[in-house]
UniProtKB/TrEMBL annotation:
Organism: Aquibium pacificus
Sections of the chain in a coiled coil: none
Domain SPOR positions: 339-424
The name this protein goes by in its record: D-alanyl-D-alanine carboxypeptidase
PANTHER family on file: D-ALANYL-D-ALANINE CARBOXYPEPTIDASE (PTHR21581), TRAFFICKING PROTEIN PARTICLE COMPLEX SUBUNIT 12 (PTHR21581:SF6)
Keywords: Carboxypeptidase, Cell shape, Cell wall biogenesis/degradation, Hydrolase, Peptidoglycan synthesis, Protease, Signal
Sample GO molecular function, one term: carboxypeptidase activity
InterPro entries hit by this protein: Beta-lactam/transpept-like, Peptidase_S11, Peptidase_S11_N, SPOR-like_dom, SPOR-like_sf
UniProt key word Chloroplast: no
Stretch forming the signal peptide: 1-16
Amino acid sequence: MFLAMATSFATSPALAGKYAAIVVDANTGKTLFSSHAEEARYPASLTKMMTLYMVFEAMQAGRITKETRVPFSAHAAAQPPTKLGVRAGSSITVESGIYALVTKSANDAAAALGEMLGGSETGFARLMTAKARQLGMRDTTFRNASGLPNNEQKTTARDMAILGMALREHYPQYYSYFSTRSFTFGKTRMGNHNKLLGRVKGVDGIKTGYIRASGFNLVSSVKTDGKSLVAVVMGGNTGASRDAHMAELIRTYLPKASTRDTGPVVAGRIVNAGGAVAIAGIALPKADVPTPEFRPAPIEVVTAYADAEAAVTPTQAEVAEMADEGIGQGDIDPVNTASTPAGAWVVQVASTPSKQQALSVLTQTSQRAGSILAGASPFTELFELKGNVYHRARFGGFNTKTAAFDACSALKKKRIDCYAVQQQ
């Protein structure tokens, strides 16, 4: 009877080319049910799961806190509904942004968080995609932080299951946000779009999504009686039919799930206080585990230079390679000023995975450099190398090549790694 229902759901004319589903035993990584789970689909607001993953990552690393203010640019404020309606120039806390994404699925809050963490929403989308690869989401590409329509923003049910498990495994201290039933912003109360919360035993999140191109999507997490599932349904004709199908999947496959927790099933990492990164919780493939055959190297492997925070400085060979490939002429962070034109000599002190880290390195370098950089102007610059996104931390304002080289030599005497280069 269930198979007949699933077939009917999947072959409904309104769902042609949109339906996909997967149920994974989150205790073992075993796939209990799969239908079109490897086929490309539009994630819609399931995208915000990755946006939140990146927020949680930044919180755990200490780059932001739940009280950090999130500014709203004109771009963020202009996002179409669903939205909070925050005016450009105003701000909210990170925690309000989290609640807004979990409950109301606010597009403006997603864009604002993305800009804060990535310098621009486009830059943040690159970071999201790189993170997806690190987690083993082979078939996911992000182009924005919200899930608003974009023909190039694709995923699979399998990849969304991986992301759901990663959120639970890597950030258990923040995962409870997904079970929030409602959130009050100003005088407006916002209920969670996930209607299975409180209605299906054991469901504790995660996220709904809808755009016309995707149909109604849902990722659900279930924990009860020692059993654990992550299930994905994509392409529902209505929210109600999607929810009914998800509930039926849970009822059918929860009894088949194991009570034996064999450990993490998605690669994780820990950033220690010194900025070093260790891989933790790497699960070997088990029976039908929906994880990758290989583990891409993390994009945030960091090496500290002196006391600089989490700095990654490219080698001279990498600098030459970037020049050969024309890399380095991408988006310039607003911190940059007109006093650093193309061709001017600058001193680079770090290249980091995030804008916040780059700004922190600039601040620490300024404090330690004394009079060496007294007349220099700090700025960050976004660039991409071999599919990974980094943020250069640079000082401009040097009149000649000699001045830049002399400043760098003086910095090295203070054990501050650097090199002089012409601004592109």
